[in-house]
Request: fold
Amino acid sequence: MDTGLVMYEEEFERISAILNRLRVDANAKIVFLVDKNGQQIAGAGEIDQVDTTSLASLTAGNVAATDGLAKLIGEKEFSILFHEGKKDNIHISIVGQRLILVVIFDERSSLGLVRLRVRKAAAEVEGVLTQMEAKAREVGSSGQESPFAEITDEDIDALFSE
Reply:
């Protein structure tokens, strides 16, 4: 898994638009995208109603634990997880083997509708990921170095020892 992918404003806007459209089309309360390390990438809906930092972190942990369960029974992974509650439900899906798409919905929607809409949105997010990877290769092959390439470990040690 390549975790060194850089997301520019253009990709962030496209992913945010996909999440917003998914929230509306699936009649969901909250939709968000996190990486497998538990860092939230983007979100849509009533995200101010929940602790998104904890939710993102716990979701990544849930996916990691479920990956362990899958391997124990001989599966590569379980690409879709579903948790049903009394009021709210959580649909979790793996996108592009590196991101986690989370949809929280209630009785105003259905699992079938969410799954249908998630399938389309996941394909769109994967398209953005593919373009991001191509852009990263293009920037890498153009000879442009990272702005941090010239910073040495000694520079960092000197900065923090003052």
Observations:
- Helices lie at 9-25, 52-72, 111-141, 153-161.
- The first strand starts at residue 30 and ends at 35.
- Strands lie at 30-35, 40-45, 80-84, 89-95, 99-105.
